[in-house]
Model the fold of this input.
Amino acid sequence: MSADRDVVPALPLPRVAVRGGAAFPVHRIYCVGRNFADHAREMGASAPASKADRGQPVFFLKPADALVVDGVVPYPPGTADLHHEVELVVAIGNDAPAGVLDAGDAAALVFGYGIGLDLTRRDLQAAAKAKGLPWDTGKAFDHSVPVSELVAKDDMPALATLSITLEVNGARRQHGSLSDLIWDVPDILHELSRLYALRAGDLVFMGTPAGVAALQPGDVFIARLGDVVALEGRIVGRPQLL
Done:
């Protein structure tokens, strides 16, 4: 067999729509934990009193093929407690230079922004945390990353003037101002570059405000990044406990 012949069919590269008709091929999905003080407190963690006390950000990854771009989210197996977390999404349009990225150079990497959900199997995450185990099964599962279209940064107002909001069945569940992020976008890209080689095609989910709660089959959600872009979707199917 030829060394350049695939032994299984290659899967298509996940892509997110870009406003205006283009597409954004996705390389990796990085997520930031505890980036709003009110959410950190609701999860039982301490929140920094100032930027000087904030320590290090919490990172985890999700697979790129967990993206949902049509808004239809199958209720995942193995859980009875699927939670929503609405988040700003940062799309990286240029490779970072070698070494640690200076926060002042971070803006040059950004292509644009969107809004998304970091869906969480909260019961699996909580059980893993209680045992001191990794909680990948609570976060990195199929269909766990619904995301809106992306908007180029040049077509956006200043991030600090915007808020993120989630409504479920017409009722507001979450709302937070991006000015309240513990680590802003340049901070996060700087910290990620200490651990990973950031590449064009990466998405960064920037963390969620307070108000995380359960989603049920049949629920309809609308996530918004100010008046700039929205993500509409629904939960389909039913829980399948293992």
User: Anything to note?
Assistant: The two ends are 40 Å apart (CA to CA). The mean pLDDT is 93. The chain has four helices and 17 strands. The domain at 22-236 is CATH 3.90.850.10 (Fumarylacetoacetate hydrolase; domain 2).
